[in-house]
Structure formats: C-alpha cells, structure tokens
Design brief:
350 residues, alpha+beta, OB fold (Dihydrolipoamide Acetyltransferase, E2P), 2 domains, six-stranded mixed beta sheet, five-stranded antiparallel beta sheet, globular
Length: 350
C-alpha cells in the first residue's frame, strides 16, 4: 500500500528521517513507535503528501508519488493530528466539512456524518459547539471527520496522547472497527507500546530518525525492556523476583516491601510493567476485586490538560493517571495520602 525506499528528510542541518526502507501492506494496522523527536510525525506527513522527502522514493499502491499524482494520492489518505484542529462551529458541520469540500450530495453527507458519529459514540452531539467539548471528545470529532471521507489510508498521530481512559478506549475501539469493517489501512504514530500490542498487525521502532526494528508486536516486545522503557516512555516498569502460587498466579517481590500479584505463571527474575490508566486511585481504602492494593503518598503532579499524572510512592514509585475532574474532587496535591489498586491481569511480565 505505502512503501518508503531509502527515504531521508532533512530540515536544514537536522536529519528527521535517515534512509528509511519500509512497506505497509493493504488493510494492515501498522504502528510507528518512538519517543518525541524520533521522526514519527515527519513520516506520517510524508505519507500524507504534506512533506516531500529530501531524497528517496515513496510509493502508493505501487505508483511513485510525485508532483503529477500528489493531489490524487492525498484524496486517498487522511491524517488526524495530535493537536486537534476544529472549526468554530457545530460538531455536525465539522464532520461534514470534508464531504462538502469534495462535493458530495446532501443526502450522502447526512448518511455518512450520522454513521461516523455513531461509530465514535457522539450521536446526540450534532448541534454541540465543537470547541466547547472536552479534549477527548474533540479528538473523536476530528477522527469522525476523517472517517467520513472513507479513504484507503488513515494516518493517526498520537491519537490517544494524554486522554482519559474512556476516550482512549473509544478511539481504540473505533480504530479496530474501521480496519475490520472497512478494510482501511491504518498507520498510527505513538509512544504507547500497548497500542501496538492491542491494535497492530505489525510495528516499527523509530529512534532519532532511524528505523531500528520492524516486526510483530511480540517481536518488538522481545527487545530488552530496559531499552524499550528508555525510548518508548514506558511507565511503571519494575524488576523483581517472581514465584508461582498454588492459585496459578505469581507473586512478584519488587523490593522495599512491595509485592504484586500477576495473573500469569512465571518463576525467577522478571521485568513487569503496569499502565498508568489501569491503576485506580482513591483517598480511601479501596474495596474492589483488584488483587493489588497499596497505600502511598503523592510525590509529583503533572497537568496534561484533560488528565493529570501523579507519582505515588508506595515503596516504589507508580505513575497514575486520573481525569482533571477526579483530581479536583479528591483535592489531591503533593503530600496527599492515597490508595492505588490494579488487577492482577493488569500486570504485564516480560
């Protein structure tokens, strides 16, 4: 579907992409994983025809992209940026914009807009003012606008960065639906390793403009965890010693009195990680089915817009993500005593 052959992109003296050779297959979900500044967005912009490579060749459906066919290529591809750009009007008009620009009949516009608003779970929001929605809802509007065009390729730049778990889940479900129901080729730039594991058929590691590895998510996860954590911004990564229990789970001693339970069987030294969004945080003792409950203290706070990330020390430092509303309602700040909890199934072992 899309092929890079020896693609290099320079911005002055800065090399954003260096000699990239890559091919994304038709109807594939492909993730490009890497930290900020690794060249992910530049790669998507070249795929979308917004940027041109300094050297090398880009192919779309076997045809080399050049000035003569660039407009047609762009019509077959949509790019949703991380920083959502919406018009100062209603949700419906935002989603319909691209369709009207391309001259679709009003009946078809209505059909498509209604369909994609249902897909992103924004039915009933048609007359809401788009810019007054939450950040996560705005991202879903931008995604719906792209889906309405029903192009062959959908490019997503950090689609769930800094979103709360609900909006993140809806967007991930939408990506899966679009790929399975429409056969759309989807390329996602992300630092989130879990999206590669959950959504992608294949993934690529991009570090400082260089393609480090391409393979299945399982092959990518085979990379030493210390390396992955350093460049993929994995959080809550710990080393410990695991012992299998009669119940079939494993108890993992992380040191400093912190022992967590994982829903897998593994003996010996292990590296584990837990997603911040999989951790429940409360001011009070948590009563739930979660097997891992710890009392700790908030030691750092990072405001991300719709969400807030907290560092909670329970003997080990855990990063926890909560919505702005929850943060305010709980009256949290540095020094607050809290409880965190997560299920045994949330603990990943490598």
């Amino acid at each position: 579907m899309i092929k890079f052959k020896n693609v290099t992109k320079m911005f002055g003296d800065i090399c954003a992409l260096e000699n990239i050779n890559l091919e994304v297959q038709k109807s594939e979900v492909f993730t490009v994983i890497g930290p900020n500044g690794s060249g992910k967005t530049t790669m998507l912009r070249i795929m979308a025809g917004i940027e041109s490579p300094t050297s090398g060749e880009v192919y779309f459906n076997g045809e080399r992209m050049d000035k003569q066919n660039l407009i047609q290529m762009r019509r077959n591809c949509t790019l949703v940026f991380q920083r959502t750009v919406l018009f100062n009007t209603t949700v419906w008009k935002n989603v319909a914009f691209g369709l009207r620009l391309r001259g679709y009949a009003e009946k078809e516009i209505n059909r498509r807009v209604n369909e994609v608003l249902g897909v992103v779970k924004l039915t009933g929001y048609e007359n809401r003012w788009a810019k007054k929605l939450s950040g996560g809802e705005q991202q879903r509007v931008a995604l719906a606008r792209a889906l309405a065009l029903d192009t062959d390729v959908l490019l997503l730049d950090e689609p769930t960065a800094n979103l709360d778990p609900r909006n993140m889940s809806i967007i991930e479900e939408t990506v899966s639906w679009v790929n399975k129901e429409r056969g759309t080729t989807i390329i996602i730039a992300t630092h989130n390793m879990f999206q590669a594991e959950t959504l992608a058929h294949r993934a690529a590691l991009l570090i400082r403009g260089k393609l480090v590895q391409v393979g299945s998510p399982q092959e990518i996860f085979a990379t030493p965890m210390e390396e992955l954590a350093s460049f993929a911004r994995l959080e809550n990564v710990f080393s410990g010693v695991s012992a299998v229990q009669k119940t079939g789970t494993s108890m993992i001693d992380l040191g400093n009195g912190v022992i967590m339970e994982a829903a897998v069987r593994r003996e010996g030294k292990v590296t584990v990680f837990v997603r911040p969004e999989d951790i429940i945080l409360s001011r009070d003792q948590i009563v739930s089915s979660a097997r891992n409950v710890f009392k700790g203290e908030v030691t750092a706070v990072s405001d991300l817009g719709d969400t807030v990330k907290l560092k909670v020390n329970v003997g080990k430092d855990f990063i926890v993500q909560v919505t702005q509303r929850s943060f305010r309602e709980m009256g949290l700040n540095i020094g607050s005593e809290v409880f965190i909890a997560f299920k045994a199934t949330a603990v990943r072992i490598v």
